[in-house]
Amino acid sequence: MATIHEIQAQGRKDEGKGASRRLRRASFVPAVVYGAGQPAESIQIEHNTILLAAKHEWFFSSVLDLNIDGKVQKVLVRDWQKHPFKQQMLHMDFLRINENEAIRVNVPLHFLNQEKSPAGKTAGVVISHNLNEVEVSCLPKYLPEFIELDLSGLKEGDIIHLSQVKLPANVEIPALALGADHDIAVVTAYSVQEEVDAPAEGAAATDAAADANKDAKK
Questions:
Q1: What would the pLDDT profile of 159-201 be if each residue is shown by its tens digit?
Q2: Half-sphere exposure of 186 (CA within 13 A, CB side)
Q3: What is the DSSP secondary-structure string of 107-136?
Q4: Which helix (H) or strand (E) holds 216?
Q5: Global pTM?
Q6: Cα-atom radius of gyration of the chain, to the nearest Å?
């Protein structure tokens, strides 16, 4: 059963830049909820609530229970604006969802057992994570908070493609339906050859020639 994440909020009447500035000074985040064939709704959320929730990856990739004045709506975070350098969220957009319709969400990838793999134990092998998240499609009740990718069998020269990612039941990757060109590499393991330091030899020859010129002038 998926974990329920509830966010407390209140409705608001005041809108506009001035109202938003007043809310931020009072330690609230102005936000908007829209979608599912219903009118957009302006809300406010305590800044500490958002700040704490935003430290978890589930906040941006899970279906949330947005409790607005006691009425719960199922939503996804669709957009957010952060202060350029302060620990402050300036604005949030939430999208209402229909629990009977499939949604598309970017879900984080968790890479497991990389250090235990043959590639991870081999000197000179670089393991690259080309993707850190993947877009999935499913009904809201099947949405995973993350997808695990076990790298315990990864060897030098291996490439793990998108089609090789093991998905939970009832979850799909829409990109794979677009053809083989979209079956991109998620993880690669390749060796790095050490280059011979040729310039050092050239420098030694130059020093030797300089010493010879000094001897000739004596």
A1: 999 999 999 999 999 999 999 999 999 999 999 864 444 455 5
A2: 23
A3: EEEEEESTTTSHHHHSTTEEEEES-SEEEE
A4: helix 198-217
A5: 0.78
A6: 27
